[in-house]
Specification:
The complex is a heterotrimer of chains A (82), B (233) and C (741).
Chain A (H helix, E strand, L loop, with lengths): L1 E9 L6 H12 L11 E8 L4 H16 L5 E9 L1
Antiparallel strand pairs in A: 1-2, 1-3
Chain B lengths: L2 E5 L6 H12 L3 E5 L10 E4 L21 H9 L3 E5 L1 H8 L6 E3 L7 E9 L15 E8 L3 E3 L2 H9 L3 E6 L18 E5 L5 E4 L17 H11 L5
Parallel strand pairs in B: 1-2, 1-3, 3-4, 4-11
Antiparallel strand pairs in B: 5-8, 6-7, 6-9, 9-10, 10-11
Chain C lengths: L4 H6 L4 H11 L5 H10 L2 H4 L4 H4 L9 E3 L6 E4 L4 E9 L1 H6 L1 H17 L4 E11 L5 H21 L3 E8 L8 E11 L14 E6 L9 H4 L6 H5 L9 H17 L2 E6 L4 H13 L2 E5 L12 H6 L5 E6 L4 H10 L3 E9 L3 E6 L2 E7 H4 L15 H6 L12 H10 L7 H4 L10 E3 L6 E4 L6 E7 L2 H6 L1 H18 L3 E10 L6 H20 L4 E7 L3 E2 L2 E2 L3 E10 L16 E5 L10 H7 L11 H16 L3 E6 L4 H13 L3 E6 L4 H6 L6 E5 L4 H11 L3 E7 L3 E7 L8 E7 H16 L1
Parallel strand pairs in C: 4-5, 9-12, 17-18, 24-27
Antiparallel strand pairs in C: 1-2, 2-3, 3-6, 4-6, 7-10, 7-11, 8-10, 9-11, 12-13, 14-15, 15-16, 16-21, 17-21, 19-20, 22-25, 22-26, 23-25, 24-26, 27-28
Helix pairs in contact in C: 7-8, 7-11, 8-11, 11-14, 20-21, 20-23, 24-27
The chains are: A alpha+beta (82), B alpha/beta (233), C alpha+beta (741).
Pathway (chain B): Purine metabolism; IMP biosynthesis via de novo pathway; 5-amino-1-(5-phospho-D-ribosyl)imidazole from N(2)-formyl-N(1)-(5-phospho-D-ribosyl)glycinamide: step 1/2
InterPro entries (chain B): Class_I_gatase-like, PRibForGlyAmidine_synth_PurQ
Protein name (chain B): Phosphoribosylformylglycinamidine synthase subunit PurQ
């Protein structure tokens, strides 16, 4: 069994209103060296799949089809055997 | 002319769309259940507003895989008239029937209030009753209506006159202050290249009766009927 | 085996309550049974402290189809139709987790309405917070508004009105009272009864998890540091699930298969099952092993007390189980038979074949203890009431004071909040938020229903009896100003710790005032909710008996709004402006005082004023109507100007101090406007009806101008207010958003 940890973030070119609010708040708290904050989504998907290559293929597929909107979002993921 | 209003789990403007279409056009209109495998017999399909599947992953992302979407997409590809309002617009972009995407409003809040729209293109089935540049007042009610498309897509949209409605002030001026949600180029509604699929964030069904204090939304439903009956467009 | 007293004490039962349980059962209860008794006998579920007072409220009237005791009240609106409505508090959960607390508050009250078979058509929220200069308060306010917006918008029921007040007394205990209004054909009314021996009992909707175990007991104690740590008591709402449940329930109710239905609210399966059995005089037998669960290893105790949201308990006609399941399956929902109705009056809970609890259903409801708690007049009252208001200096600049008042969050536009609510979905909202009352049309008829929530907690603090009566009178006045006949009341009574005699005294006083006003205005109470223990570190909230009221508009063409309509129209004050500055927003803003005696309420005059205004709105004579409330006459005039987008030229006789004239909050006062040629007709009618009035001036121009003349004192009069409407509007509209930045 594999566990996929998927990180979805807004693409660089897309305005991230949540991120800019958090950046401003951090600044107000005195963190003046914070340059940028991007906020995303974190998903954990457990897969009953035997080999890593297959798991990787399936996760990529899920992301492209449903979990991520490529128009505005990017993603990365890690696979851990559990 | 027969209208169909798709009901997804979590749609909540389905009854409103049905009511408005009936009241304005007097034409037959029926619900289409999301599990339905066909849209045969319908001349115009409306994807209503609401929170399909709770909008839990992204707005419209799950609804786009409902069984009914397959025939809706085919219907649209054959040139059938499809209109997505609010959540319906989000579903259409997720389904790839319209370019771009809608994300969180710039101020991060859900917004419900009247907006002014400038009709940018009156040659579509949805706007043929309007004059170009006409200003109409239509309310919005959304948390994620901030339209985004990459620069190339945006350029094409503008070039092909696919931007149908733009947020403007009461005098028709497209200003940053008139933009409620941060949409690029003040975009409130777009159509596909062929002009038969419209997506718009504002709700025309909410202002189509005098008792509700505003009838500007009638224009869109009336256009659809007149276009169908070849009286305009 | 004798139980360790620690067990029941930790669950909130007193030793004498435990003894009563032993006496009822004729034996020692087991752990599950003690848990069941503890929640059902908690203040939140049993109303053990408030019941004696609540019994004194008027509950009957010609339009009342359902009074207190059911999931919601029902009033007749003619044509075989009815309005189902109720208000409920979600104060404690919201103080700890504002978004989810408020969201589940909305979810819970919606279920109370559609469990009766009605389609919810509107939500109103009555909210109280501390002052906005406190960042924690801003966080709570934002969270609560977002929670209401998140839940209500998603399920597609418009949030059409309500109120928001800010005062220090609510700093640690915000109040979140949510009212829901539904529409129903009278033939479809369903009740929470487990009737018909042998009928199956079904659990429908969401799966059961460990959410909010002991939420009811949690709502029955003071908030403390430790309470904040017991976060599991706050449930998470799923509006999408509720939307499916709503549609499925209304569909199944239409079939006629349903005998009884009830929401699993506070105390979950426990309260719904014993209340349904108790109302029907039956018993219920349930096997908890059959209840669909979200988590593994849940004990019977946890299943019985879980407050997982979006669940309902159904009793259906025997033999229709499969058809009922089919309807729920269509909406992708679970519907599972978990037991049946029995004839022995016993709530018998099993886990598989093993009986885990056996309690007479009525022991949990009707036999719950009732406490006549001692009362004592609070010491503060004399001091605050006798404050020498008249000795205060009068302002030099009335323009400045008026702008300050308009910028006070208690008076300023609540647009910051209601812009986040979908108030239009459903296509019924004829009068949108920001007016005296919301008005919704009833599709297919000429009728409309008007609704409002009202309560000035400061008045109730300064004089509980008058304050509560004013809440009723103002609610009715707001409905009248919209052209509706007030029909009935639902109330949400928010108080501190009732074990303190002073709190109990104010509670009784409020009930007395409310009863008196409800009788006089013929608006019976159909139910509601009591929320005690709104108190932290000994500081109780202002007594806040929120009134939710509904009314009927016979003809939608005759709906009235507050905005001035046309230049040249004549402006009148109906009622009598008296020198009453006590308890006013003016005293708070100008002097930082929340003191003095609140304005008096003369119910005879109130009735006369309301009857006159309603009749003349219906006759078409009155073109606009607006109730004078916080901020007095000047603020009310400013609001008429803002809504109408037009100015007004006012001249008044100075019969007493100018600040009281402009900013005092005398009751039974309504500002109206009529066509300039109809002034004489109006005055004749006013004189005939014996209704006091003052002619104020004329609609027109871009500014609000208020002059006073002083007969017998040449040179004493003059101009007090002269402000452009645009300036007034900017100040009023932007104030809260500005404070939230």
């Amino acid at each position: 069994m594999f566990q996929a940890k998927i990180y979805v973030t807004l693409r660089k070119s897309v305005l991230d209103p949540q991120g800019s609010v958090v950046r401003k708040s951090l600044y107000a708290l005195g963190y003046h060296n914070v340059q940028e904050v991007r906020i995303g989504r974190y998903m954990v998907v457990d897969l009953e799949v035997a080999d890593r290559a297959e798991a990787e293929k399936q996760v990529r597929d899920m992301c492209d089809k449903l979990l991520v909107n490529p128009v505005i979002e990017d993603y990365t993921f890690e696979l851990v055997e559990v | 002319m027969k209208f169909g209003v798709v009901v997804f789990p979590g749609s909540n403007c389905d009854a409103d769309c049905l009511h408005a279409i009936q009241t304005v056009t007097g034409q037959p209109v029926e619900y289409i259940w999301h599990k339905s495998g066909s849209v045969d017999g319908f001349d115009c399909i409306v994807l209503p507003g609401g929170f399909s599947y709770g909008d839990y992953l992204r707005c419209g992302a799950v609804a786009r895989f409902s069984p009914v979407m397959k025939p809706v997409i085919e219907f649209a590809r054959r040139g059938g008239m499809v209109m997505g309002i609010c959540n319906g617009f989000q579903i259409l972009t997720e389904a790839g029937l319209l370019p771009g995407a809608l994300h969180r409003n710039k101020n991060l809040q859900f917004l419900c209030h009247d907006t002014y729209l400038r009709v940018e293109n009156n040659t579509t089935p949805f706007t043929c009753r309007a004059s170009e540049g006409q200003v109409i007042k239509i309310p919005i009610a959304h948390g994620e209506g901030n339209y985004y498309a990459d620069p190339e897509t945006l350029r094409q949209l503008e070039e092909n006159k696919q931007v149908i409605f733009r947020y403007c002030d009461p005098h028709g001026e497209v200003t940053p202050e008139a933009n409620p949600n941060g949409s690029l180029n003040n975009i409130a509604g777009i159509c596909n290249e062929q002009g038969n699929v419209l997506g718009m964030m504002p709700h025309p069904e909410r202002c189509a009766e005098a008792v509700l204090g505003n009838t500007d939304g009638q224009l869109i439903f009336q256009s659809l009927l007149d276009f169908w009956q070849r009286r305009c467009g | 085996m004798v139980m360790d007293p620690k067990v029941w004490r930790e669950m909130g039962l007193t030793d004498s309550e435990y003894e009563k349980i032993v006496e009822i059962l004729g034996r020692e209860p087991n752990y599950v049974e003690v848990g069941i008794f503890a929640v059902m006998w908690s203040e939140h579920c049993s109303y053990k402290t408030s019941r004696p007072a609540l019994k004194t409220l008027p509950t009957e009237g010609p339009a009342i189809l359902q009074g207190p005791g059911e999931n919601a009240g029902i009033v007749d609106i003619g044509d075989g139709q009815a309005v189902v409505f109720k208000i409920e508090s979600h104060n404690h959960p919201s103080a700890i987790e504002p978004y989810q607390g408020a969201a589940t508050g909305v979810g819970g009250i919606l279920r109370d309405i559609f469990t009766m078979g009605a389609r919810p058509v509107a939500v109103l929220d009555s909210l109280r917070f501390g002052e906005l200069d406190n960042p924690r308060v801003r966080y709570l306010f934002d969270g609560v508004v977002a929670g209401i917006s998140g839940y209500g918008n998603c399920i597609g029921v418009p949030t059409v009105g309500g109120e928001v007040y800010f005062a220090d007394s609510y700093e640690d205990n915000c109040l979140v009272n949510v009212m829901c209004v539904g529409l129903i054909d009278q033939k479809d009314i369903k009740k929470g009864v487990a009737a018909g021996i042998g009928n199956p009992v079904m659990v429908v909707g969401a799966k059961t998890g460990r959410d909010g175990i002991h939420g009811a007991t949690f709502a029955s104690e003071e908030l403390s540091e430790e309470a904040a740590e017991r976060r599991p008591a706050v449930q998470v709402g799923d509006p999408f699930m509720e939307k499916l449940l709503l549609e499925a329930c209304l569909e199944v109710i239409k079939t006629g298969y349903v005998v009884g239905i009830q929401d699993m609210g506070a105390a979950g399966l426990t309260s719904s099952s014993c209340e349904m059995a108790s109302r029907a005089g039956t018993g219920l037998e349930m096997d908890l092993a059959l209840v669909p669960r979200r988590e593994e290893g849940m004990t019977p105790y946890e299943v019985m007390l879980s407050e997982s949201q979006e669940r309902m308990l159904l009793v259906v006609e025997k033999g229709t189980e499969e058809k009922v399941k089919e309807i729920f399956a269509k909406w992708d929902l679970d519907a599972v038979v978990v037991g049946r109705v029995t004839g022995d009056g016993i709530l018998r809970i099993k886990e598989g074949s093993q009986v885990v609890a056996e309690i007479p259903a009525r022991a949990l409801t009707e036999q719950a203890p009732v406490y006549h708690r001692p009362t004592r007049v609070p010491a503060y009252l004399e001091e605050v009431q006798n404050y020498p208001v008249d000795s205060l200096n009068m302002p030099h600049d009335y323009n400045e004071v008026l702008l300050k008042l308009l910028a006070s969050p208690n008076i300023a536009s609540k647009e910051y909040a209601y812009k986040q609510y979908d108030y239009m979905v459903g296509l019924n909202t004829v009068v949108t938020p920001g007016s005296d009352a919301a008005v919704l049309r009833v599709k297919g008829t000429r009728k409309g229903i008007a609704m409002t929530t009202d309560c000035n907690g400061r008045y109730c603090y300064l004089d509980p009896k008058t304050g509560a009566a004013i809440a009723v009178a103002e609610a009715a006045r707001n409905l009248v100003c919209s052209g509706a006949k007030p029909l009935a009341v639902t109330n949400c009574l928010n108080f501190g710790n009732p074990e303190k005699p002073e709190v109990m005294w104010t509670f009784w006083q409020c009930i007395e005032g409310m009863a008196e006003a409800c009788r006089a205005l013929e608006t019976p109470v159909t139910g509601g909710n009591v929320s005690f223990y709104n108190e932290t570190r000994g500081n109780a909230v202002y007594p806040t008996p929120t009134i939710g009221m509904v009314g009927l508009v016979e003809d939608l063409d005759k709906v009235c709004t507050q905005g001035f309509k046309q230049a040249g129209d004549a402006i009148f004050l109906i009622g009598e402006n008296l020198p009453e500055l006590g308890g006013s927003e003016y005293l708070k803003i100008q002097f930082g005082l929340e003191k003095g005696k609140p304005p008096a309420l003369n119910l005879e005059l109130e009735k006369k004023v309301q009857r006159f205004v309603l009749d003349e709105i219906k006759s078409g004579l009155i073109k606009s109507a607006h109730d004078c409330s916080e901020g007095g006459l000047a603020v009310a005039l400013a609001e008429c100007c803002i809504s109408g987008g037009i100015g007004a030229d006012i001249t008044m006789v100075r019969r007493f101090r100018g600040d009281a004239l402009l900013f005092g909050e005398s009751q039974s006062c309504i500002i109206i406007s009529v066509d300039r040629h109809k002034g004489v007709e109006l005055v004749k009618k006013l004189v005939d009806a014996g209704v006091p009035y003052t002619q104020l001036g004329t609609v027109g121009g871009d500014s609000l101008i208020i002059n006073v003349v002083n007969p017998g004192c040449t040179g004493c009069g003059g101009n007090l207010v002269n402000l452009p409407v645009k300036k007034i509007e900017e100040t009023w509209r932007g104030a809260i958003a500005c404070l939230m930045k």
